[in-house]
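Example record

One chain of 314 residues, shown exactly as stored in the release files.
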Amino acid sequence: MKNRILLIALAVSAALAFTGCSSSSYNGGNSYTQSGSYSYGTGPNKTRPKEQKEKVNISGIGGAKPVYEYQRTGGCNKDYKVLGKNYMVWNGTSSYIEEGTASWYGPGFHGKKTSNGEIYNQKGYTAAHKNLPLPSYLKVTNLRNGKKVIVRVNDRGPFVDNRIIDLSEGSARALGMIGTGTSKVRIEYIKVNSNGTFANAIGTPSGALITPEAIGTKTASSGSVVNKGTNKNSTKAQVKLKGIYIQLVACNSDTLATRIQNDAKQRIKLPVIVVNSDNINRVLVGPLTEAKAQSALSALKGRGFSDCFIKRFN
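Predicted structure tokens for this chain:
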């Protein structure tokens, strides 16, 4: 997948083991239909899942093997805010289908924490979604070539360009969309009962059971989050800062912080770093002089980061 697609398409996908994340708004569109005060489909504001008309056929489909997993309603399954937009989490979802554009994310995020605190494995069969409770399972069909895969949703995103799902490299490869970067897909929710049976699906999938080791349930330590090396090109640091910066976001998700950092680099020609302190990632622009900070703040607000602010470190 081309770097340009990765940086633009995924500018923010991920992550919300949020203890809270406030950031600048992103002027992305939406493609879902209105119904009263709610919109059907993934996206910001008041949304609800469009219901399936028939059971999902998962017979013989590879990828992740759907199993029952408890979904807590706190932490990563609380409603949240990213880049100035509010998102609802569909806790208690039992039925959902949607067609739209899928993208994928890979090497730049491998080994970082996903929204539910797991470690992202780019070769696994996982995905990011804005509204589904974590973890969830989906059948994904590439409408361009008919290929199908089952994915386990453990991350948040994507937050740009009308995209409804962000797939791991392994999932994208199974769908034959690595080269294109994006594809038109259909996604269908798979609800697993506590006894292991399927509430809304028929057939037996051929996917391999994803073990805790494969999905990386161990939460990353701050040491694996932040590059402690001396590489002068490193854009992450775990140091005591001094000076004036502009803060774009503060959250405990590595993938979200990296994506906002990448997005900001496309919008302003100033240093953008991610600093980790007490397991919180701060995306900062700087260091800056007082005068430069004021002009940069105005520029960033004008380019979509409406909630950014000046932060001084002593």
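Notes: The radius of gyration is 19 Å.
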